[in-house]
Amino acid sequence: MRFLGRIAPRLRPHRGILVLGTVLVLLATAIGLAFPLVVRELLDAAFVAGDMSMLNRIALFLLGLFAVQAVLLFGQSYIMAAVSERVVAGLRKDLFGALIRQPPGFFEVRRVGELTSRLASDAGLVQSILRLGIPELVRQGLFLIGALILVTVTHPRLTVVTLVAIPPVAVVGWVLGRRVRRISTGIQDRLAGAVSRAEQVFTQITTVQSFTRERWEEKHFGTEVDATLEGGIRRAVARAGLTGAITFAAFGAVVLVLWEGGRLVLEGALTPGTLVAFLLYAVAIAGAVSSLAGFWSNFQEAAGAAQRIFQLLDHPVELEDPERPRPLPRPLQGAVTYEGVRFRYRPELPEVVRGVDLEIMPGETVALVGPSGAGKSTLASLLPRFYDVTHGRVTLDGVDVQTVSLQELRRVVGLVPQEPMLFAGSVLDNVRYGREEATLAEVEAAAREANAHGFIDALPRGYEEEIGERGVTLSAGQRQRIAIARVLLHSPSVLILDEASASLDAESEALVQDALERLMEGRTTLVIAHRLSTVIRADRIVLLDEGRVDAEGTHMELLETNDLYARLYRRQFDDALASRASGGT
Asked: What contacts 533, CB < 8 A, 6 or more positions away?
């Protein structure tokens, strides 16, 4: 009932066409219920009255009746297929919309493959029950009720014999149906885990092969699939037991009807045509009961899938727009202030940022440096509200970022990550990802500023060249310059650079640094620095340690006055010299 209660609002917009489908089901069911009565007349005419002309007329009438029924069933099947496609398409879109609005922290504790499994296989199970299950439930339910009424009118004594099978069928269906649901839920969870692992392996195939872990991954995936297989076999046993028990009980009742009806025919209390008609109704009742039990099994499986989908749909969005968002000043100057900021990722975890006060002037470039785990990336991620502060506030031109709509806030804050993520598609699509309406001339201008136009123009199809998933056909430096071009085209007022040239060779780093300098010009910039050599030219350097501001100043000031900064710089300087020495030999 919970499943139907959640699906019903999605069916409501289609109620007009569903009413038509229900009418078609009613008419088709009525024809099916009339068939045994016509057969009774046919047999009695042939074997009792001996009327050949009536036999011919009834046979032709039956053919016409079944032709009409075929048309009705075609219309009903088409209507339900179309409605189920639309409903599940809407469900998938709503689920994707709900997931894509979750903050990065949501995806850090969930496997992406599991989420894609919800979009694909779980939604597919819901679609199958809407397209086939519910229409079959209505049709078989109507057939069962109509057949019971007609057999009761035809011969009450035989009706009692027919009804003997229903109680055990109901009990078996209930018990085994619930077991099928539990097993199916486990199968879907294990399958989602296997798919998630496969997705990770495919996206990190270079790492897998470089460590020669192919056989281990194959074995690990095989273990997950085998667990799914074992669950599938248990489900098959439960479903087969359900089908077998119900079929035996239902058609055992038919045998009793045949035996008791045969006695009545021999006694002259029943005509042969009436007995055949009754048998047809009994078989129809047995078939309806068997179909309903099968539907119950499938319904339990779909209900489990729907439950997982609606759990994700109901998951609250941790970062939402304020009820009455405040607009940012126009034109935006780009002054950023952290006031007593504290942050922890989850209540049970320790604080990562511990009382940071920091003011960044418009157009100023501030570099965040410090040991690993000092809170550099976390502090920067609080500005575009990828996370919300636990205490304190972050302001942009004096406006608390939590009072600004996410769309407006993130439109003015640009991010160039250390590992740029490009999408499968063309270079053009990737550059104008943040400004879909941008013209080719604007895209080319941004690419020139990012030192990317040269290599893009040299590609076989230029800006229309497909670059593969994650931009695998490009070098790291080329990917980074496309990412910079994307931000340049987006034209934000504030920049966050997460050591955008840290993993590049010397030539690529020079090109990227040149592009970054043009990108940073006139913009407030927050640089997350892992290498101190990249921040020497910053207007100000902020040294973080254990989530607190340890010192601020220029490179030379910190080198002379702060021991931690001096140690970090000397360590990296020595590592660089050692690397060059080993390269030279």
From this structure: 572, 576
User: Crossing angle for the helix pair 272-314 and 2-11, nearest 10 degrees?
Assistant: 80
Angstrom distance (rounded) from CA 309 to CA 121:
11
461/190 Cα distance (integer angstroms) = 43
State how far the alpha carbon of 149 is from the alpha carbons of 159, 202, 272, 287, 563, in Å.
9, 60, 20, 16, 93
Cβ atoms 92, 126 nearer than 8 A: no
pTM comes to 0.68
Q: For the chain, how far is it from start to end, CA to CA, in angstroms?
A: 74
pLDDT at residue 313, rounded to an integer: 84
Tell me the per-residue pLDDT of 293-344, one tens digit each, with 9 for 90 and over: 667 667 777 777 788 888 888 888 777 888 889 999 888 899 999 999 999 9
Q: Which amino acid would we find at residue 243?
A: T
Which token pair is 266? 């021999």
**Quick one: how far is CA 273 from the chain centroid?**
57
More confidently predicted of 571 and 340:
340
Closest by Cα among 399, 404, 400, 397 to 389: 400
pLDDT band for position 577 (cuts 50, 70, 90): very low
Choose among 471, 536, 526, 460: nearest CA to 498: 526
Residue ranges of domains in the chain, CATH in brackets: 2-199+227-314 (1.20.1560.10), 336-419+494-584 (3.40.50.300)
Question: 10 Å Cβ neighbour count for 135?
Answer: 22
Q: Are strands 524-528 and 365-369 parallel, antiparallel or unpaired?
A: parallel
Q: Which pLDDT tens digit goes with each residue over 214-244?
A: 777 788 777 877 777 777 777 777 777 766 7
Distance CA 394, CA 391 (A): 10
Alpha carbon 111 to its chain centroid, in Å, reads 11
